[in-house]
Each structure stands twice: as C-alpha cells, then as structure tokens.
Amino acid sequence: MGQVKNEIANAIKTLNLGSDLIELLDDKTGFEIFQKCLDRFVNSGDRKRWWEDFKNISFSVDDLEMPFEHLEEYTPNLESKVWLVVEDDDEIFYPAYICSPKIIGQLIGECFGFEYYIVDINFKWLICENHHSRLIGTGNFDRT
C-alpha cells in the first residue's frame, strides 16, 4: 500500500468514517476514474502534476492559509458524491475514492501534505490543492 493510501486509511479510522462517506475504489475502477480524469482535464496525459497542464483553468486561489478548510466554499454541490483522486508516488496510478465532499477537508486535515483532486462524479469540474497551498479549479462550475 502506498504511503498516501496508508495515511488516508489511518485518517478514515481516526475520524471513524464509514463506507457511506468514503470508500477506496478497487484497482480496476480506480484506474478507469484516473484515466477519465486525465482525458477530461489534462492536456498532456499522465503526468505528476495535473494542475501544470489543465486544458482550461477556471480559477486559482492562493490567499488561503489552509485551503482544505475552505473546500466546501468552492465545491458546487455538497450533496452529491465526488471522486477524490490522490497523488501517491508509491502507486502505479493515483488512487481514487468515492466520497462525500463534506468530509474531505476534515480528512485532509488529518494527513500529511499531498496533492489531491476532487472531481465531480460526472467529470464536469475539478478542484485541487497543490504543494503551493493553492486551490485550482477547472471545468464547469455552474451550480444549476
């Protein structure tokens, strides 16, 4: 198990989060989600830092001290599940989780720093936090 996957597993236990709130996808499904994210959002395909080559940048916020504490302000729909894709260099591809967007900030707060991507279940939009503590979003953020 990769270091980030292990960190998230520990955070899930610490926060006592059930599978109704977050669940690691099996490798086959996780890889499909990973690939769909690359196809939809990243010009140059599989690369370490997706945010360096997004097809379209919608916004960038760099004045937040702890960006993960503000995710709910930028997430278009807090009631719909999202994909959480995490950068884990120990894995062949970035692991993917299906989860409630309401718990992501709390989950990230329990972990050491790593880059992550929150993706609409239908791949309409993506929000990430990079290692510069910048929130970056791309896609269609129409809340209707």
Describe the structure.
- The chain is of the alpha+beta class and 144 residues long.
- The protein has one domain (3-139).
- Helix content is 26%, strand content 21%.
- The protein is built from 4 helices and 7 strands.
- A 7-stranded antiparallel beta sheet has the order 1-4-3-5-6-7-2.
- It is globular and about 35 Å long.
Q: What's this, in brief?
A:
Helix content is 26%, strand content 21%.
Topology:
Blueprint: H1 3-15, E1 22-24, H2 27-41, E2 59-61, H3 71-74, E3 82-86, E4 96-99, H4 104-109, E5 116-120, E6 125-129, E7 135-139
Antiparallel strand pairs: 1-4, 2-7, 3-4, 3-5, 5-6, 6-7
Measured between the Cα atoms of the first and last residue, the distance is 39 Å
Task: Quote the beta fraction.
Answer: 15-25%
Radius of gyration: 14 Å
How many strand elements? 7
Regions with pLDDT < 50 over 5+ consecutive residues? none
List keywords for this structure.
144 residues; alpha+beta; 7-stranded antiparallel beta sheet; 7 strands; globular
